[in-house]
Structure formats: C-alpha cells, structure tokens
C-alpha cells in the first residue's frame, strides 16, 4: 500500500541551494496581471519548475505584498524577479538578447501547445497577459510565436496561474528535463 511521503523525505532545496542550482532556459512575463494571488501562484510554479526569472510588468503587483506572499509560500525569496514598467521595451530587449518570445493567447495563426516544439538551444520567454484583456496586441505583433492551450469546454480561458503551470510543465517535458 503506498504511503504519502513526508516533507523531510522530499529533500527540497534550501533557498540558498535553489539560487545556486542550474535553472531551466525560460522566463515568465506577467503583464498587467491584477490578481496578486495569481502572481503568487506563478512564483510558486516558477520555483517548482526552476524558471530562470519572472518579469512583472505594468500594473502587476510586486513583492512584498501579503496576497502574493500567501500564495507564493516563500517562492518570492527563491525565484529571481524584476519589475519592468513597459512590456514592449522588455520584449524588444529580450529579443535582442536572443530569447524566443512566446505570447500565450488565442489569436489568428497561433500554434496549438501540443504542436509546439521548443528549441533546446534557445531561451524562451513566455508572456501572460491581463485576466480580462489578455496579452497586449503590440506584444502579439512582436512575439516570435503565439501559443494557444487547447480547451474543449464551454469556457474559452484558463486562470493565468493554471496556464503558467501547463506551459512550464509542457516546456520541460518536451525538453526531457529531469532533476535529481
């Protein structure tokens, strides 16, 4: 009969060890995300999947804030993050640095996530937009690709934190990333 593993048995990294550990070749960009709970959840996901960094843009809240801290469960201390006031400037900068920019959105010409094959030799920046308006149109125009998460129900959107979890897991699974 299986048993639940204790927290001690999980051998989780300390914050200091996490900071020194190799990161995966991607970052998450949150643009004008209103919900601080969503921001905190994305921090936690970025920690779980060892994202290189999170960029918080526009009106997106930044740590320290109790609502972010409540859902991040300490990930604001482990995951590197930066505030960037203007997402278009940030996207231009990342593209100049050689990053592939992927907007997560439903748009004409989007690539279904199941058909997305990441380039293991390039870093990827995933852009998540506002909970109502989505990804900024100017970012969609500048992005190297637009990724769409297939959905089969009556709703046509997912919570941003759920979307980030799906994108991070899918990206690492396709790169066949495993850690010890």
UniProtKB/TrEMBL annotation:
Domain tRNA/rRNA methyltransferase SpoU type residues, every copy: 27-169
Residues in the signal sequence: none
As recorded in UniProt, coiled-coil segments are: none
Indicate whether Phosphoprotein appears among the record's keywords: no
Gene Ontology MF: a single term? RNA binding
Would the keyword Methyltransferase be found if you checked this record's keyword annotation? Answer: yes
Name any one Pfam family assigned in the record.
Answer: SpoU_methylase
Reading the lineage from the top rank, the first entry is Bacteria
InterPro entries named in the record: Alpha/beta_knot_MTases, rRNA_MeTrfase_TrmH, SpoU_MeTrfase, tRNA_m1G_MTases_N
Q: Which key words are in the record? A: Methyltransferase, Transferase
Biological-process GO terms, alphabetical: methylation; RNA processing
Q: Which GO terms describe its cellular component?
A: cytosol
Query: What is the name of the protein in this document?
Result: SpoU rRNA methylase family protein
**Originating organism:** Larkinella arboricola
